[in-house]
Amino acid sequence: MTIDMAQFHQVFFDESFEGLDVMESGLLNMDPGTADTEEINSIFRAAHSIKGGSGTFGFTEISNFTHVMETLLDEMRDGRREVTAVAVDALLRSVDVLREMLKAVSADDTIDMDDVQAQQSELEAILNNSESAAPAAGANSAQPAADGAEAITGWRVVFRPLPHMMRTGNDPLRIIQELTDLGDVKVEGDASLLPRLAELDPEECFLSWVITVNEALEKSQISEVFDWVEDDCELSIVPIVTEAVAEQVEAPEVESAVQASEPAQPERRQGERRAEDRRSPVDRRQNDRRSGGGASGSSSIRVDINKIDGLINMVGELVITQSMLSMLGEDFTIDRVERLQDGLAQLERHTRELQESVMQIRMLPISFTFSRFPRLVHDLSSKMGKKIELKMSGEQTEVDKTVIEKIGDPLVHLVRNSLDHGIEMPEVRKAAGKPETGTVHLSAAHRGGNIIIEIRDDGKGLDKHRIESKAIERGLITEEHNLTDQQIYELIFQAGFSTAEQISDVSGRGVGMDVVRKNINELGGSIEIESEMGKGSAIIIRLPLTLAILDGQTIAVGDEIYIVPLVSIIESIQLKPDMINLVAGRGETFKLRNDYLPIVRLHEVFGIESVKTTDLMSGLLVVVEGDGKRCGLFVDDLIGQQQVVIKSLEANYKRVDGLSGATILGDGSVALILDIPGIIRLSSQKYSVADLKQSA
Fold first, then answer.
1. Does the first or last residue of the chain, that is N or C, have fewer Cβ atoms within 10 Å of its Cβ?
2. Nearest of 53, 26, 50 to residue 40 by alpha carbon
3. pTM: predicted TM-score of the whole model, two decimal places
């Protein structure tokens, strides 16, 4: 039977991208000259995994390129090559190239071989530097005999897996396949220890192999194939030599090879290690990510087994409750009403718990988004000639998978702006009495029903006077406007707004901040700015934990029912005559404490005629906030608070301004969910048009 290997491709790509994350993180943490051996080993094993997997699935270009990276890393971990900044930077660029190769292959696109060849040439140039790559004393290699004849013509490998090896996730056949990629190889299997079928444990390995490698390779090239399983097998690697130098091989080594080829009791080599530590870094990372991990943008998701167990238990409880209610329904009598009410309450509780369990499955740590920023800061700080330290906290804060996928690009914009506009050049910071190294702090935390993401820096802060003058220059405001600091900071979210004196390839064209706000609004979130001149700035993003469930306030406008997100509601009030004012250019307003806020009549926005009243004194005003602006929504009545399941309007109908989605209520009717920032924008546009008509 032929196995279709294509079914395993997605697993290979997922694990390879995780391996690239391991490599990139390790390289960024590496201190040239004093590199941690374990760190290099982790990077090497990740590269080794990608090389082996790509070879198994026939992705030759990836396997060949990774082999060159692996060779350089091998020399570093063996001490044959010093870890230099040049080599680390080359390996980082190689990780980028390898990532693009994997993306191309996974999408069935063509690999850009020009980039691959250019980067491979850079790696080979480093490898061919004879001074830095000089072999360490005693390095194991196939040395020529004194008379010019080759002493070693090949290798004889005896590979006997211990019974438990396959339980560690290692496949002997895959290891042998990688060995055959080294050249002319002959493989002989030994099934002498295979038990009878009735005694066969399918999770244990009873086979062994004698492998003849007819190539004059270095011993390290053979042994590295077995790096992951060195404690899970009996292994002998003995050179095959020509007759002229056969007597040079010491008798004890030949004797040990003979002994190794005979059946023996399982033994550990080089001491005991935990099974967890014997796995590849990709395997360990995969296990870590099962606590809520998954590749960003992937159609699949890895889930902690405890979450699955909890979900199964909840379903079991739900089945029991359903069975109880079914029994109550048979020959129902009035004296069973109390038991029926208890059963319905129990059903409601189990349904809510089931909902929470299902939502937890979609929750991923935000580290999957944060993980891209160490590399971004490393590259841009070097490019701009700045000294910048990135600090991260709250990486394990969990948020909905969809939020993870969509928040990445806005965060990249904000961090780049912080690096470019916020952090000063070292000499400027020193002159201002600051450390030469600036700090950018990226953090995440749960607060109430939201996740709060902050990007803080200790740079120069926002120059509110410059922002204000630029806004006046562009006609966004007039000199008569008396804006608060927060209102001035809000101006940078206007499309095309920029205070940069020079345009760079990092920022300065005014493209980005308006898109950032738009993307965050689409996630149901908000963004605000804190800044102090000379001290630094902070961008604060508030996002819902999930995009599937919403806590909302149900309101009535005529015969229509709407949902207002609870996070947008400040308060609800009954108006009095002395609170209402008419302000030119803003229409109807009401005074709330010391501020005048616009009134938005929802029946006018949505063209509803069946309202109970148009008298502001007779209805209710729901004070809401979005995009840093507040207004009062005039409604007929408040019905109640409830959780609703969000259905996309855009996917099922089309995009509608002022609405973010819809939901189905308990009676089967459809209620529309209000987009508060959109409602405020619609209201502002209405009065802007009125001003134009009046001036005309």
1. N
2. 26
3. 0.57
